[in-house]
Amino acid sequence: MFDAPGDFRNTALRVTVGCAFAVAFCMALAACGDRSEPPAAAFANTQGQLLVRAKNIKWSAPPPGLPPGPKVALLQGNPNVPGHYVIRVQLPANYKVPFHSHSNAMDVTVLSGTLFVASAQTFDKKKAFAIMPGDFYHLPAQVSEFVFTKDLTVVEIHGEGPYDTKYANVADDPLKGAAVPPYSFTEGFTDNDMNAAAADATVDMSF
After folding, report:
1. How far is CA 177 from CA 78, 163, 173, in A?
2. CA distance 12 to 42
3. Buried b (16+ CB within 10 A) or exposed e, 126-153
4. By the 8 A CB rule, do 113 and 177 touch?
5. pLDDT tens for each residue of 147-174
């Protein structure tokens, strides 16, 4: 079977090394499967990643150019300056914003409730589109719309700043054409949940 004693020694050495590697590998897997260990250290350094749990969102008053009633939460960016921003808006039941437009385009996703949107054409026909949870709605810049709700509705808006609201009829403007007073969007969260010491929805990856 073996040509010389040296061949036997070499083969035995290879088997021994292979067994040692297999044992070390199994021990490493066992360590990874220890569910008592804290979350991975990577959660302590997000490198710009941001996680905001829905339960931790902080709501504040809306910009003064909107009819009173909604609550807003700033999730990213600064709507007062040029650049991308993300805000979440909570609209009360039976809320409406008469025909208005914005200087920059917006992308709207309905998270809960129903957002009703009418254009000048559909409004004349006493009809509005019902935008429901999961639906996506793109509003181009300078395009006029009439929006209202029947129930509590939450939407998320991705847009480009600066944010503004212009009414087709000055009588519908809560400010009646007056200059918009200074307003700062308050960040809708206090902590980055990617830094959570005991993240409540991490997944064990020792599969």
Report:
1. 24, 17, 6
2. 42
3. eebbebeeeeebebeeeebbbbbbeeeb
4. no
5. 999 999 999 999 999 999 999 999 999 9
